[in-house]
Amino acid sequence: MRRYLATVGVVVALGWTGAAMAASAPTPDINSGFLGYCKMRPTLEATWSCYVDGLYADVEHSKDPAAELPRLDRFVHGTHGYLESACHMMMHVVGRRYATRHHVTLANLRKYLPRSNDPGCSAGFGMGLVMALGPEIGRLGPTGAVRLCSRAPTRFRQYTCVHSLGHAYMRLYDEQLPYALDACRALGSAEAPDCAQGAFHDYWLSAGAKDGTVTRPGQTHSARVLCVQQQASFVLPCWYRFFLELPPKRAPATAQAVADLCRDLDGLQRSGCIAAASLISTPDPFAQSQICSQLDGTDAASCVRGVGVQNLADSGLEKQLELIRTCRRLPPEARQECSAWFGKTLAVVTNGSFAKKGCERLNSASDRYACTTGASRMKGPLVTFS
For the chain, what are the domain ranges? Predict the structure, then answer.
């Protein structure tokens, strides 16, 4: 699901359906010049619409989204550009459109969910499907919703499902955040924070009228205003996507810039702000970790929560070990928390294999213990995770 950054923040505020463009030109196909065709569109809005229509056409043509989305992930990652960074949000639109046209229901949802842990196109499509099922999810009740997500075959997809419930509740309740958060709380303490992160994500999307949402009268555009009103377990979820959807003029590319965005905040509010700023600092997880290493202890520990671990899901064990070893560069008081966080999140994206093969490869006993402890909590709430 990573990483849209400021450029995408502008683009997702533009048109979504591409109906006007589609009416005047043939829908491109991914196997016959789709990428080049869309790059030639004259505006960002037209480019966005072209990609959405092309991706939708490809999914339709495949007749098997569950198998096609992993192929799309591989294709899109090979582009290393705008399409890769924006595909998750584009697939929100594609997923909702597909669910409506094909009458996707909770009963047949698993047939269409991508067989992939990829946080980009696949996760976005799955979230789009779930968003379209808001009324049915509401009728399912909290017990049924938890049961639905628990049936997902990997921990990452279980998390994605719970996060998607937050989006779905926001759509169900017409972007009224208090009602969506009440629905998340009803899921229980294990799922509520991750569901809330989805709800707050939808709230920040609606603050910019993005992703098919509408800004509500009187809606605040400030995390400093909204997040201070939240219960403790919802503060970090509230902050996490704020800068992603309402970005500052410049992405915080240094530790000082990260800290500057969070000036005058303390406690949980500062931790949430630092994690949110880290999330948009750079798409390179190693560069992110370097930024975190230059912050003071508490801030450094908060900063690593925004590091793009998901980008390394398919990178192989050695690359994943390289990332967790960067915890040794952090201030001493943040190193164990960093190792525990990366142990947990790398276990999530590898469905537990990092816990078995990675933690034991760390050099120090304290790092191995922190990593193993974090990994053992992989089934608990993630709170900040893309």
Answer: 247-386
